[in-house]
Task: structure prediction
Amino acid sequence: HGSEIRHVVWVTLQFYQTVFKRLGYQIKLMRHNGRNNGDAAHDVTLADLLLKAPSLPPTVAPDINDTALLQPTGGTTGSLKVAELSHRNLLSNATQVSVWASVRPGQERFLAVLPMFHVYGLTLCTIACVASACEMIMMTRFDAEQVLNLQKRYKPTIYPLVPTMCEGLCDQIEAQETPATWEGARLCISGAAPLPPALAERFQRLTGMPIIEGYGLTEAGPVTHANLIVESRSAAIGLPMSDTQVRVVSLIDSSRDVSVGEAGEMWVSGPQVMSGYYSDPDATRRVITVDDEGVRWLHTGDVVRYDEDGFFHVLDRKKDMINRSGLKVYPGRVEKVLAAHPQVKEVAVVGRADAVHTEMVVAVVVPLATPEHPEKLITELHALCREHLAVYEVPALFEFVKELPRSGLGKVLKKALRTTPLEANEPKEAA
Result:
C-alpha cells in the first residue's frame, strides 16, 4: 500500500444550503483551509469534476475484491484503526439488508438522515437505496420537527435511524396537537446502539410502523444480524443475515464453542467481513482467525448468548466487562435493572480502577428531573440493585449527570466515563 495520493476529490455541502448556512459554511471552510494533500495531489471538488467530465465516462472494470472504502473505526478493541472494505463487502451487505427488509426495487423512499461518512449510513441510506433504484430523501442533520414535515410532504417508506433519533421523534409527535398519520411508512430500522424495549414499544405505538433492531460493526460493512419484521424480539439483535455464519466461543478457551444460553464472544463470517485493517497486519491477525477449513472468522469483541430459537442477545462489549476482585460484572445487566426505576431516564455502568477490588462498579445516571434529595434516590437505586443483582454487581458509586457523552451516531462513549465525573456534582457513594 503506497502512501502517495495523486488525486483528491472532495464534496462540499455549500451548494445545498440556505443563504445564511452557505455563508457560515464558507467561513468554516476558510478557517479549516489548512489541508495538506501533498504538492503532487490534484485537488478538485466533485461539482467541478462533474462539470468537466465527458458525457460518457471511461469504462472501469474493478475486481469485486478490490478495496472500495477505507473506513475509520474504533475497532473491536477501542483504538482507532481503518477497516479495508471491498466492493464485495459493501454490495453483499447492501443486498443482505435489502432482502431482509423486503425492499421493493424502484418503489421505496428512504429517509437519508444518517451521516454517510459512517458505514451504517453509507450502506443503508446510500448503497442499498441506489442499488434498488429507490428515492433518497436527504437531510444534512437530524431535526425531529423537520422529519415530521418531510414525512407529510414526501412520505418516506423506510426509516434507518438510531435510538436517540427515535426518542426525539417520539417527543416531537407527543408535543404536536394534531398527530401525524405516517401514511406510507413501512419500516424503521434501528442500529448503532441498543434499542430499549420501552422506546421500541413507544415508537411503534406513536407511528404505527414496526421498528426492528439490528446489529453490526464497521469491520462487517456493517450489518450481521437483524430481527424479523414479523417477529421482532425485545432486547434481541435477532438472527444472522443470509450467508452469515456465527460462532459463540468460550471467554476462557476460544477453541470451544459455548452451548445455548451460555455467554461467550461472538465471531462472524460472511461476504461482508472486511479484508483487514489498512496497513496494520498485526491488528488484523488479532481480530481475524482462519480455521482449518479456510473460513475467516471476525472476532466482534461482543459478549452474547443465543436462545433455543437462534435469536442472539448482546450482553456486553468484552472490553466493557468489569473485573471486580476476579468476578465478571456485565454492565448491561446492571443498566437494565437501574433503567427500570421510574426516575431514571438513562444510565451507563462502567468500571473504574480500585486499589482493593481491581475495579469498582460505577453507575452514571441521567435522571428524568434533577432530584431534590439525591441521597434518597441513591438509596432507592441501591436497594433496587440489591434486590435483583448479586452483591458484587451492585454499584459502589452513583453519579448524576445531565446527559451521557455520545458519538455522532448516538453511541454512549463509556471511555469518557471511566476516569472522572462529567459534572461538578460530587460523586455519591451507595449506602
